[in-house]
User: Fold this.
Amino acid sequence: MPRILLSLFASLGLIAGASAAPVSYNIDPSHTYPSFEADHMGVSLWRGKFNQSTGKVVLDKAAGTGSVDISIDIGSVDFGHDAMNKKALSAELFDAAKFPQSTYRGKLAGFVNGAPTKVEGELTLRGVSKPVDLEIKRFKCIVHPMLKRELCGADAYATFQRDAFGIDAGKAWGFDMSVALRIQVEAVAAE
Assistant:
């Protein structure tokens, strides 16, 4: 009898292990917008977002592991102000002609009940790569009602110093170099 139970538990262990495989999710660009806030002469905060991003998330809820790999089209920057959009693309700020893409790559971490609470990652902006960790304040997965595949969404936050990436316009005039990064993201399980 003990041998049969041991064999049964071993089989169940193999089945459970097989069902806990990592799942790949494709970023939904129509529901994903990295946005940011940056100082404007100490008088106000300018807010902008990037309208085009692509990428992949790999998530293993059972193991508490995962990864993020995102590409952002710098040319899609949008402040809601045409003159500022043009300025942002210039060599003084994002230098989109020379650096048309920004990337963020990291590992999901701090899992609680199968959900990550942070991303330990690296941001590459204007050809400079620096550690930038994201705090995940909201994370949820559901079955997409139309696609019938799992859909996961999150809100992530970070702050970084833009001059560390070579974007120091206004520093001599006393502009605060800190940038608040806010990301809404949705990703659908790959077919």
In short: The mean pLDDT is 90. The two ends are 43 Å apart (CA to CA).
